């Protein structure tokens, strides 16, 4: 890991509803319309880079976008999230979902990335959902708190489960390779909901597929960020599968987690997104508390999960400046 002259910072969901400009665009276009229209998608992706002065752009998209060419029929419902109209119920249902060629099925993603890299002088992060998080939507039919349908499918239909996970791992690796071939200079894999599994279930039902997925990405020579929420108990496996940056949420400490990972990977995190709503002295203390734990190169300042719609852009700018002005030891 190479030293930088300041700690880099970007925010998960840095483009979104907290921005008046985004809300204005959303009056005319749905979320998926924005993703499919390169000029608008480029503009939305660039908004936070220009406003906040962050050190990376993240492609504006959604983890559900590549599910459409696989045969998943869904809508994104405001305040809920993805709602799937043809969820997986029986083992056979897994056969309905197919691999796809990203260049043919999602050409607007490549087009947006190509437009963005011309405009940007910071890295562009491409991304995808991880197989477990995507499978959970496909089986639950929408967001879930307990993941009972997903876990039952895993336990009762292990063969079909592994078939689904293999398919998703291959499809998402191909999709990421496509994003990098178009110009993305880093990637992040969001396994937002995998922390709901215990260590043994992760090892048996998820880990082999993450090894396959990250294995396929090894030749890309870009940072491979692997992020989960409430996944402190899984961090070592999230590193060992082949990622080069592990994303942490606010429930764990930066210094302890980094040590646990033997400093073999960079780490990213981990401000509580709700802290952005706190008075500045409290928020400043929380940012400093994170930065004080950083004693070597290889740290990326971020939130522990996505920005909330109630956030204030001026506060995000203030955090960015605070991190940039932090004196490295
Ligand atoms: O700027 C960025 O960070 C890129 C934008 C981005 C979106 N979705 C756009 C979006 C990213 C990185 C995602 C990933 C995503 N989508 C994840 C993984 C990250 C995480 O938060 O854990 C997940 C689980 C989803 C599924 C999803 N899509 C949810 C839970 C929601 C929120 C529903 C709601 O209304 O609260 C969405 C919709 C969505 N995706 C929005 C945005 C900006 C908000 C709704 C909108 O503008 O219509």
Task: Decide which structural class fits the backbone.
Answer: alpha/beta
Classify the beta-strand content into a percent band: 5-15%
Number of strands: 9
Low-confidence stretches: none
Number of domains: 1
Taking the sheet with the most strands, its summary is: 7 strands, parallel
Mean pLDDT: 97
CATH T-level topology? TIM Barrel
The molecules bound to the chains, other than polymers, are: coproporphyrinogen III
Distance between the termini: 16 Å
By CATH reckoning, the class would read: Alpha Beta
CATH architecture: Alpha-Beta Barrel
Helix content: 40-55%
Descriptive report:
By secondary structure, this protein is an alpha/beta fold. It has a single domain (20-326), classed as TIM Barrel. The protein contains 13 helices and nine strands. Strands 1-4-5-6-7-8-9 form a seven-stranded parallel sheet. It has a two-stranded antiparallel ribbon with strand order 2-3. α3 (38-52) packs parallel to α5 (107-119), α6 packs across α8 and α7 (148-156) crosses α8 (158-182). The protein is globular and about 55 Å long. It starts with 19 loop residues before the first helix and ends in a 5-residue tail after the last helix. The structure holds coproporphyrinogen III (CP3). Coproporphyrinogen III binds at residues 12-17, 26, 31, 58, 60, 62-63, 76, 78-82, 127, 190, 192, 306.
